[in-house]
């Protein structure tokens, strides 16, 4: 269905082309009128050249350049260009004879001086063809650049959406995993009707608030992450009772430092889930400090070297999240030997 917009565009295009060729006719008239007072001769000769110029130009800009040059079929481009030049040169020769025979009645002296020269006539015609072709190439290049930018934008948008979906998927994995461990602990206390159960529920409530309402934010303050790590540690202290020895050292934590939510907590969770008792005690040491725009996080726990702790869902997810959120802005070293499982994380914050 032909739309009004399409029709108006075509009308505007026809008008622009007509205006341009009127300009070319004016150029021919002035060019061939040099040293000549016969306006009728000059106008008739110029009008005779117009179809030759228009046909040659349109063959180049609508056929040869788009189909052969732009598509890099250079052999065919050269071949068809040669054919076009031969035919147009033949017609230019005819135009000179037209000026001599029909406009000057075989009187060579009555011809406009420039129209006598086959070379100058050809230069005039091919100058227009070259200008038109150059403009077409420029237009195609601009169009190609715009199309490339649009494609790159779509690719970037698609990649961003995929990253967002992957992040959401990873968060969905972290949530059940984290809740499963904590609720198991709470269930055990409820069975024993322990006095610590209400406090444990309150800590869990704080963590759930963080999990449900803060984790969807791109970044939270580092202090918020620390507060919820402390809540988690308090929950684990209740579960392990006297079999846990934990040290959490914080240093130089500024309020303006931001971090992705739930980024450090899975490391802490992993140390409890996969940690092993050493002489009846689970030892966990955590150091967190900042220097300028760097965050340093170190955690180690007693562990059976024969158990590969890296298989936990939490650590696998956190590695993927680091790649998505801090690509080329972090270093992560994980070491599991000598009955100690160690994690060293260094983040660059903006």
What's this entry about, in short?
64% of the residues lie in helices and 14% in strands.
Here the CATH topology of the largest domain equals Heat Shock Protein 90
What is the number of domains? 2
Helix tally equals: 8
Radius of gyration: 40 Å
So what's the CATH class of the largest domain? Alpha Beta
Biggest β-sheet description: 5 strands, mixed
SSE arrangement, N to C? HHHHHEHEEHEEHEE
Uncertain stretches: none
The proportion of strand residues reads 5-15%
**Strand segment count:** 7
- In the sheet with the most strands, the strands line up as 2-4-5-7-6
Shape: rod-shaped
**Going by CATH, what is the homologous superfamily of the largest domain?**
Histidine kinase-like ATPase, C-terminal domain
Indicate the mean pLDDT: 84
Structural class: alpha+beta
First CA to last CA: what distance? 53 Å
- CATH architectural type of the largest domain: 2-Layer Sandwich
Relative helix content: 55-70%
């Amino acid at each position: 269905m032909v739309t009004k917009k399409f029709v108006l565009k075509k009308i505007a295009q026809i008008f622009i082309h007509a205006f341009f060729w009127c300009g070319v006719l004016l150029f021919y008239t002035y060019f061939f009128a040099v040293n000549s007072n016969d306006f009728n001769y000059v106008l008739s000769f110029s009008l005779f050249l117009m179809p030759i110029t228009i046909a040659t130009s349109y063959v180049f800009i609508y056929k040869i350049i788009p189909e052969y040059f732009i598509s890099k079929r250079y052999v065919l481009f050269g071949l068809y260009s040669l054919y076009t030049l031969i035919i147009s040169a033949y017609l230019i020769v005819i135009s000179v004879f037209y000026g001599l025979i029909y406009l000057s009645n075989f009187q060579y002296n009555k011809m406009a001086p420039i129209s006598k020269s086959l070379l100058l006539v050809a230069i005039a015609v091919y100058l227009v063809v070259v200008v038109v072709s150059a403009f077409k190439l420029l237009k195609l290049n601009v169009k190609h650049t715009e199309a490339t930018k649009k494609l790159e934008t779509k690719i970037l948008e698609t990649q961003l959406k995929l990253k967002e979906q992957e992040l959401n998927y990873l968060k969905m994995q972290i949530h059940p995993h984290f809740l499963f461990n904590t609720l198991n602990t709470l269930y055990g206390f409820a069975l024993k009707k322990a006095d610590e159960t209400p406090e444990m529920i309150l800590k869990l409530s704080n963590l759930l608030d963080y999990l449900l309402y803060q984790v969807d934010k791109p970044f939270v303050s580092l202090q918020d992450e620390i507060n919820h790590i402390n809540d988690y540690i308090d929950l684990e202290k209740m579960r392990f009772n006297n079999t846990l020895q934990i040290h959490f050292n914080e240093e130089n934590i500024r309020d303006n430092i931001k971090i992705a939510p739930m980024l450090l907590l899975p490391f802490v969770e992993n140390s409890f889930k996969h940690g092993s008792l050493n002489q009846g005690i689970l030892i966990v040491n955590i150091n967190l400090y900042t220097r300028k725009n760097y965050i340093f996080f170190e955690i180690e726990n007693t562990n059976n070297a024969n158990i590969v702790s890296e298989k936990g869902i939490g650590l696998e997810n956190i590695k993927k999240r680091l790649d998505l959120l801090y690509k080329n802005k972090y270093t992560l070293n994980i070491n599991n030997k000598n009955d100690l499982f160690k994690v060293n994380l260094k983040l660059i914050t903006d």
